[in-house]
What we know:
Layout: E1 6-10, E2 12-14, E3 20-21, H1 26-34, E4 45-46, E5 48-51, E6 60-61, H2 71-77, H3 84-89, E7 98-101, H4 115-124, E8 139-140, H5 154-163, H6 165-171, H7 173-182, H8 187-202, H9 206-221, H10 229-232, H11 234-239, H12 247-250, E9 264-265, E10 288-294, E11 300-303, E12 310-316, E13 318-322, E14 330-333, E15 337-340, E16 346-350, E17 356-362
Antiparallel strand pairs: 1-6, 1-15, 2-5, 3-4, 5-7, 8-9, 10-17, 11-16, 12-15, 12-17, 13-14, 13-16
Helix pairs in contact: 5-6, 6-9, 7-8
Amino acid sequence: MAAQRVFPLSCVVQQYAWGKMGSNSEVARLLASSDPLAQISEDKPYAELWMGTHPRGDAKILDNSILQKTLGQWIAENQDCLGSKVKDTFNGKLPFLFKVLSVETALSIQAHPNKELAEKLHLQAPQHYPDANHKPEMAIALTPFQGLCGFRPVEEIVTFLTKVPEFQFLIGDNAATQLKQSLSRDSQAVASALQSCFSHLMKSEKKVVVEQLNLLVKRISQQDCVECMACSDNTVRAGLTPKFIDVPTLCEMLSYIPSPSQDRLFPPAWSQEDPYLSIYDPPVPDFTVMKMEVPGSVTEYRVLALDSASILLMVQGTVTASTRTAQATISLKRGGVLFIGANESVSLKLTLPKDLLMFRACCLL
């Protein structure tokens, strides 16, 4: 009998402080829907659902016929399931971590290295950089959200410096002048000026940031000010709530915000030569996330085989899954997660006449 290469997973939830609380979190709702024994604590945050083999969140295999207890352990002994190209390129490891995020407050500012820099940092400080891989990211919106990604066009930042004195105070006159002058110079001058502005903002003392945000909120509340989007929109609303007051609040005046019509964004990587993110330019990631929508009138749907291991998340709908290697059908409903080995197809039979919404993460080289 062929070895089992498709099976359900129980995945790890991360309860970071910035996550939405209790059943307000989509992560918690997915967990509760997929596991009737799950107990959701309404006073705790449910920030991220991790679907993969990360050491701090290796998914458990929900199949008693498989000896290995976690996905990482199983893949280590069944590397062919990754697909030939993926196996060779990523040294027999699953090269992506599939996540669902449910965000209540601003996350910390993050910058992920490119492959070359990741390898160097791993050698220099493995305790801080536990692997040598880069971290390309792609975010897909399940519900409306705003994300800050890369830098805005310099002209917009200069406008904010001119019209928002509190912002210029934190940046500093010298760095602000340098950025304004870089408009008429080459890209290297722009990058250097952005570095200076970003460094000044990120190194500002929290006490000073709070003082300037309070001044900004007071000034805006006392006048009909619609001079710039950052003043009249999220920055002020964030500033009115003490727990939101932090440096990231003002980063909105530096950062690029994808258009509301976009349903995904790609945070750019950074290199040793250019450690400060360049003007927003979506990279081509090593991985893919497929969105699959199936009308409830379709009684059976086939998930096609790929030359890559993949992980499928059911966001809406109820099905039974069967494959050529499975000893029994697999029940899959909202919040359910399925691992699919390379070159395996899966037949999904709808058990209820309701539309399906699924996402499938894989690595197509």
